Amino acid sequence: MISPVTPIGIEALSLYAPPFYLDLDDLGKARGVDPRKYRVGLAQDEMAMCPPDEDAVTMGAAAAAAALRQVDASKIGVVMLATESGIDQSKAGAIYIHGLLDLPRACWCFELKQACCSSTMGLHTALALVAQRPDRKVLVVASDIARYGLGTPGEPTQGAGAVAMVISAEPRLVAFDTAVGSYTADEMDFWRPNYLREAQVDGKHSIRVYLEALEHAWRDYREQGGAPYASLDRFCYHLPFNKMGQKAHQHLARISHGEAPQAGMAEAQAYGRRIGNTYTASLYVGLASLLETDPEDLTGRRIGFFSYGSGCMGSFFSGRVMPGYREALDAERHHRLLHDRHRLSIGTYEAWHRHDLPEDGSDYETPRVSDGPFRLAGIRDHQRQYERVETAPAASDLAEAETEVALADA
Ligand code: HMG
Questions:
Q1: CATH of the domain at 154
Q2: Over 44-107, what HEC string results?
Q3: What is the pLDDT of residues 272-293, one digit of tens each?
Q4: Does residue 346 sit within a domain?
């Protein structure tokens, strides 16, 4: 019951985080909040910030381009984009990514929505599609900008980033078990109406509902034949902020009458501490973080995953780490990505936060800020103009552009 006959799972996994971040000590100072509330209370250090010339599509394309370098891209038959930061009500962001990456025309492309767990629905759908046709590979992209109002309690739990996973019958990283626990309840813990740029949230309620969803999804996972608690070696949780993962871990141990093992917990949270909430991408940022920073050889170890999406849905599932997984990791690129980022001043952060694209239909040219591989060049005739960046701007140009945007929008 636990493992499928043919292993299906993640063949390649790559991240993208924008090249800018805000240090939470700077945020604490600006808001008159003890920085230990962020570093200890929320267990977060930094949050990635999306520059004005990037969005869910450019970030998703950057992660996907990196993942596809490791596989035979001509076998991609489906592209899914899971996002809460969609750019169009009709056309799927997955089609823009498909076009930017010049993927095969014999392909399905669509977008998925159910808050942070739509990426997991994408993963489960991909596993079924590959089981149906094992010759095809499915590209699941999760990309988001987590955004709350300036000065609100949610502000330190923002972030931005993307993950791309190639799901196939040749998994080199993780092969998934068949048992999946599910839970849905109609809740108003976090939502974003079409006319608002920032999420609405009932923070304390969202934490309670997250834990309830975990409990129900876990019990369902066990009823579906999922592995007993004691046989799970590592855990990855959706991480809106790292302390939430720690609360979830304690809760799962309590309801399973077990200890909460600490091995791998800090490792699974290492990237999230620096990137912040990436909504749909968060759980899989945690998986990359675990596989790339855990000093132990995880070959054959079983990982328990909990995916949560406000509104709300939860899914508990598990998978085993494949032999030779270390050779298939994109770890060096990820370390460079995090290391080479620019620290924003609080002034620039706030200016970027207030900055928005015109909503009156006028054409717009976006200032060149990002040094990522794809950028949003502007809007013409109501159409977003994306471009591949051949040469990255020098760091001094970036600083100048950063200032220009800050000044233009102050
Ligand atoms: P808050 O009310 O400002 O914070 O908002 P608090 O007063 O509850 O403090 C937070 C923690 O810091 C507490 O620890 C304090 O004790 C501690 P806890 O008791 O919880 O363990 N603290 C300190 N520690 C050390 N030194 C100090 C200090 N001061 C306080 N000086 C809240 C916190 C998370 C509610 C807020 O940031 C928020 O609303 N965030 C957004 C919502 C969210 O992330 N919810 C999580 C569950 S919902 C979810 O995961 C889905 C989501 O990703 C969206 C989606 O699905 O699409 C959000």
A1: 3.40.47.10
A2: CCEEECCCCCCCHHHHHHHHHHHHHCCCCHHHEEEEEEECCCCCCCCCCHHHHHHHHCCCCCCC
A3: 999 999 999 999 999 999 999 9
A4: no
